[in-house]
Amino acid sequence: MKRVLALLGAVALVAGALALRSALADDSADVATEPGDEPGAVAAPVVACVPELETVCRGMARIFELRVEEPADTVAAIDSGTEIDAWVTFDPWPEMAGIESNHAFFSDPGLILASSPLVMLVRNGLLDGACADDPNWACAVEARPGRAAVPSPDSAVGRLALGWAAAEWNDVVRPGEPFATAEFELPEFRNWLDDLATDEPDPLDEVLVLGPAGPFVLATTHADVSQRLAGSREDGRLAEFQTSRDASVAVVIVGPAAEFLASEPTLAANFESAGWTPSTEGSSGLPSPGLMFALAQEVSS
After folding, report:
1. 189, 209, 158, 131: which is closest to 52 by C-alpha?
2. What is the band of 35 on the pLDDT scale with cuts at 50, 70, 90?
């Protein structure tokens, strides 16, 4: 009798395990398991994340396969057929990617999760003359040619910072005039663009390593300042300004697994601890995605 009961118990355990595995597979929108565990297992989604948001992406409790890479690498991977289920990036990068790619992935408006102002950092708060009272990218580059920098336009935040700086130049030098690709050929804009450093992948990193030998004026997000500058040896030596053109960068998640990631209960707290403000508003104060794409091409040519 004991043998019979033991056999019945074993059968019940196996049946229970099979039922549980089936339930997990049916509920795959909420639960993901490690890929390749066994035939029939639910594959964890593949999530691409721009380097500027790596801390937030790694802090997510959801189970997924993470790719931390520059935007161009994600766009190329999706175009080549690599399966990517979500992209954590900055708005409007998906729209800019869609200018070159017809892939349906980039037609997804995505979910906006957080934002942070774009800011100008100035060493010792020193800019000359009227620029000290009204800091902007037109006079800052003129005052510090070659030492006023935005991150490389190949980086996620760099392209947006370049667009912000160029639009502000237009506000100051050509007030009331629209900013368009025709302005790229203006001699005064070409001179300004030549004096703006755009070849450093991360000017803030240069400052943290080189100190006064690094850029004198640089662009980044307030979130980045709160994460990397605070407590560093350069803290207190760089003054933070929101310039005459208010601009902000928003985090967006696009792709079929966007809602899966965005529904994580701790996500808002993760963004806040990384210096971001939870928000549903897109990036603001920037030129159109097409104009920023064209400007990045102009800088790279």
Report:
1. 158
2. very low
Write down the pLDDT at residue 200: 85
DSSP string of 97-153, one letter each residue: HHHH---GGGG---EEEEEEEEEEEEETT---THHHHS--HHHHHHHSTTTEE---T
CATH, domain range 46-114+249-278: 3.40.190.10
Is 117-247+285-300 in the same CATH topology as 46-114+249-278?
yes
Instruction: Select from 135, 155, 152 the least CA-distant residue to 217.
Output: 135
φ, ψ for residue 104 (rounded to 5)? -60, -25
Note whether 165 and 217 are within 8 A (CB).
no
Query: At what angle are helices 156-173 and 93-100 packed, to 10 degrees?
Result: 100
Q: Copy the structure tokens of residue 4.
A: 């019979």
Amino acid at 201: P
For residue 219 the two structure tokens come to: 């662009």
Residue 115, Cβ neighbours under 10 Å: how many? 25
Amino acid sitting at position 262:
A
CATH class of 117-247+285-300: alpha beta
Domain boundaries, the chain: 46-114+249-278, 117-247+285-300
pTM: 0.84
